[in-house]
Amino acid sequence: MASLLIAWQLTNKHVLIVGGGDVASGRIDHVLAAGAHITLVSPHDGLHPLTKHHLDTSDRISYHDRPFLPADLDHADMVLTAIDDVAVSRDIAVRCRALRIPVNVADDPSFCDFYFGSQIRQGPLQIMVSTNGKGPKLANIIRRKIEESIPRGAGAAIEKTGLLRERLKERAPGVGGDVGKRRMKWMVELCTAWEMDDLALLDDSQMERLLDEGWEHDIVPTPAELGVAPVS
Ligand SMILES: C[C@@]1(CC(=O)O)c2cc3[nH]c(cc4nc(cc5[nH]c(cc(n2)[C@H]1CCC(=O)O)[C@@](C)(CC(=O)O)[C@@H]5CCC(=O)O)C(CC(=O)O)=C4CCC(=O)O)c(CCC(=O)O)c3CC(=O)O
Ligand SMILES: NC(=O)C1=CN([C@@H]2O[C@H](COP(=O)(O)OP(=O)(O)OC[C@H]3O[C@@H](n4cnc5c(N)ncnc54)[C@H](O)[C@@H]3O)[C@@H](O)[C@H]2O)C=CC1
User: Fold this and answer.
1) Which residues are within 8 A (CB) of 177 and not within 5 positions of it... i.e. 6 or more apart?
2) Cβ contacts of residue 81 below 8 Å, gap of 6+?
3) Per-residue pLDDT reduced to its tens digit, 217-226
4) Relative to the alpha carbon of 68, which ligand is closest?
5) What is the mean pLDDT of residues 13-42?
6) Which of 20, 39, 43, 112 could make a disulfide contact with 51, Cβ separation 3.0–4.6 Å?
7) Nearest-CA neighbor of 80 among 135, 30, 131?
């Protein structure tokens, strides 16, 4: 079976991480990037230097210097185990299943509700390569190849497009219906007609003109018409 690929929103949710070694330090990175609060349970003598660094630098981690206790699962929205004790890992996973808490078990895929993947983050651009558990090292190698081929302006273009879509929704508010259809059609035409590098260069006033001269007249001006010029 394939898996469902989604971008799970974790802002202000509570994630329990059990274990503080090499694998856990990577999990902490990803979970902090997603804006969640972390409870980390792991004896201090097994902490990886990167885990210690996270503890020193983030105020979103509550740390407990001890082995896992079942009460740690109270109030957890998600649980990640990354420990070198498969019996404990599986016990935690079974408890999570009973409580219907989604769980990832780093050392036993058959107990995972979801897998991690090899990730790229460039501003709002997020790419994850998954081999569905078959070949994590190959996921890493493929991710590096993809990284090399991402257009340089992609992150900035997405950022600007996000701002433009917000302004468009302020100007033409409403969810769904005719206004939704019209907004989507215009955004599709704009993103198709413009190069990513041009979108990345849009400044505040050009964005306003794009809405005044483009959206209001149901046309898509060219970058040159708005004075958007790539630096040569
Ligand atoms: C199922 C999954 C569950 C999960 O962790 O969510 C899982 C499971 C296991 N990994 C193991 C080993 C290794 N994992 C890596 C690396 C990564 N593993 C990651 C994800 C996943 N690993 C999920 C599926 C991913 C997918 O679908 O493709 C990555 C992509 C993401 C991340 O962990 O953040 C990250 C690269 C991050 C990056 O590059 O960015 C390396 C390479 C290295 O260390 O250099 C090795 C050694 C080489 C090898 O085995 O390939 C073992 C022990 C196997 C054994 O004992 O023999 C198990 C358990 C098992 O398979 O039984
Ligand atoms: N999914 C993946 O990508 C990968 C998974 N693994 C597997 O993941 C597991 C963790 O790997 P590493 O981080 O490299 O191991 P590690 O040995 O560096 O770290 C294990 C951590 O778990 C802690 N721990 C052990 N028992 C605990 C308990 N009962 N409660 C709380 N904390 C406990 C230890 O103190 C230590 O901090 C291993 O079983 C390994 O085989 C390894 C590489 C990649």
Assistant:
1) none
2) 17, 18, 19, 68, 88, 89, 92, 93, 103, 104, 105, 106, 107
3) 999 999 999 9
4) 2
5) 98
6) 20
7) 30
DSSP 60-101: SEEEE-S---GGGGTT-SEEEE--S-HHHHHHHHHHHHHHT-
Quote helix, strand, coil % in the chain, to nearest 5.
50, 15, 35
Smallest CA separation from ligand 2 atom 41, residue: 107
149 CA to middle of ligand 1, Å? 23
Domain coordinates in residue numbering, the chain = 14-116, 154-226
For ligand 2, atom 33, the nearest C-alpha belongs to 19
Which atom of ligand 2 is nearest the CA belonging to 43? 35
Q: Report the pLDDT value the prediction gives residue 231, as an integer from 0 to 100.
A: 61
Q: In which residue are the tokens 């994590």 written?
A: 136
Tokens of 207: 């964005």
Q: Which CATH architecture has domain 14-116?
A: 3-Layer(aba) Sandwich (3.40)
Place of tokens 């600007």: 160
Measured CA to CA, the distance from residue 184 to residue 190 in angstroms comes to: 10
- 107, 197, 224, 229 from 232: Cα distances, Å: 51, 12, 14, 9
Position 68 pLDDT exceeds 80: yes
Q: How far apart are CA 180 and CA 190, in angstroms?
A: 15
Q: Which helix (H) or strand (E) holds 104?
A: strand 103-105
Q: Compute the mean pLDDT over every residue in the chain, rounded to the nearest whole number.
A: 96
